[in-house]
Design goal:
272 residues; alpha/beta
């Protein structure tokens, strides 16, 4: 049992990945008095159909800080280019120093199995850092961690080389408005870029209110994201009657490269 607040670090590739992948557990952790930091490996400087360069970098940084203020967490953006992240020594050692300085008890991140090269690189970088966090000769300018953090992968739908395995899951239905609000914080993404890139809808010239209404429509039409494996996990934890009521959930796979999940963390993950 920790005699201090648990420290959680969410590591994503872009300045919105952590927000949409961990909005519910972040809300739970902050309410429980935990200290939470989001880390983006890249500046997000490629994620827009028209904005470029420093304007986009600054816009996404401001959006990340708005989300951080809303969630009650801190947000750190590392200086790598969006769409060009690789599991290089430079990126590894930058991330290693970042993790050591914060000294998390648990890290949430994506698997190294994903459609996006930046996502894959991020998962690989966390894995590459996991053992070296405790090696004094690597990055000797930053004090080593004496205990390895738990590493949890957030849910993804990819099956090659292995499908995601939900070891823990919790309902997120009551936090859907949190997700809506953090997506509105990241307006350049969810009100501009993703409608254009994913939905083939160009909202240029629309008012802010009209863009928000478009996003609300997507929310209201979403039937849920609980797949069969997550439903089995929810049933195992809470019973079938409760699991059958859950439409939206967050789930995690325990990484073999991190520490074992403690009783305290397990209660934070699945306690209601």
């Amino acid at each position: 049992m920790l005699n201090r607040p648990l420290r959680a670090m969410m590591i994503g590739a872009h300045p919105d990945d952590c927000d949409i992948s961990t909005y519910s557990i972040t809300t739970r952790l902050v309410k429980a008095g935990c200290i939470v930091r989001f880390v983006s490996m890249t500046t997000g400087n490629a994620g827009h159909q028209t904005m470029r360069g420093e304007e986009l970098v600054n816009t996404r940084a401001k959006e990340a800080q708005a989300s951080a203020a809303y969630l009650g967490i801190t947000y750190e953006i590392l200086p790598f280019d969006d769409g060009r992240l690789t599991p290089s020594i430079e990126a590894r050692e930058t991330l290693m120093r970042t993790i050591r300085r914060f000294a998390p008890d648990v890290i949430f991140t994506n698997r190294a199995c994903d459609y996006h090269p930046d996502h894959r690189a991020t998962g690989q970088l966390v894995q590459d850092c996991s053992y070296l966090l405790g090696v004094p000769a690597i990055c000797p300018d930053t004090p080593v961690m004496r205990t390895t953090p738990v590493i949890l992968y957030w849910h993804d739908p990819f099956t090659d080389p292995k499908p995601f395995r939900p070891d823990f899951a919790r309902p997120a239905d009551n936090d859907r408005e949190v997700l809506f609000n953090v997506e509105c914080c990241h307006a350049s993404q969810f009100l501009d870029w993703l409608p254009w890139a994913d939905d083939k809808v160009d909202l240029a010239g629309k008012t802010h209110e009209e863009r928000v209404a478009f996003l609300r429509g997507q929310f209201d039409e979403n039937p849920g994201d609980v797949d069969e494996d997550v439903h089995v996990c929810l049933t195992r934890q809470y019973g079938k009657d409760f699991a059958d009521t859950v439409r939206f959930a967050e789930s995690w796979q325990v990484s073999e490269y991190g520490a074992d999940v403690t009783d305290e963390l397990r209660d934070l993950l699945i306690g209601l």
